[in-house]
Design goal:
The chain is an all-alpha fold. It has one domain (3-78): Flavinator of succinate dehydrogenase (DNA polymerase, domain 1). 66% of the residues lie in helices and 0% in strands. The protein has 5 helices and no strands. It has helices spanning 3-14, 19-31, 38-47, 52-59, 68-78. The longest helix is centred in the first third of the chain and has 13 residues, at 19-31. The radius of gyration is 12 Å and the shape is globular. It starts with a helix and ends with a helix.
Length: 82
């Protein structure tokens, strides 16, 4: 992902309408995403395509994704701010 258009698109997709999800996703986008590998960035972009109930189950409900890239991403998303 390169360019301001991609960043703006991802920022828009981080806004889910549920404050808890918005905070976790936007914090990752601002703090971790810029230094993440291209594979991690691609996983985050794919993660944002999931429906809100699935995101909530993963981020807030403790559900564990089968996709190893999502599982790794989830560990980072759940990590307290540094």
């Amino acid at each position: 992902m390169d360019g301001a258009g991609d960043a703006a698109r991802l920022r828009w997709h981080c806004r889910r309408g549920m404050k808890e999800l918005d905070l976790l996703l936007e914090r990752y986008l601002a703090g971790v995403f810029p230094g993440a590998s291209s594979d991690e960035q691609a996983a985050f972009a794919r993660f944002l395509e999931l429906p809100d109930p699935q995101l909530a189950a993963y981020l807030l409900g403790g559900a564990v994704p089968e996709d190893p890239a999502f599982a790794s991403l989830l560990r980072e998303l759940r990590r307290p701010p540094r």
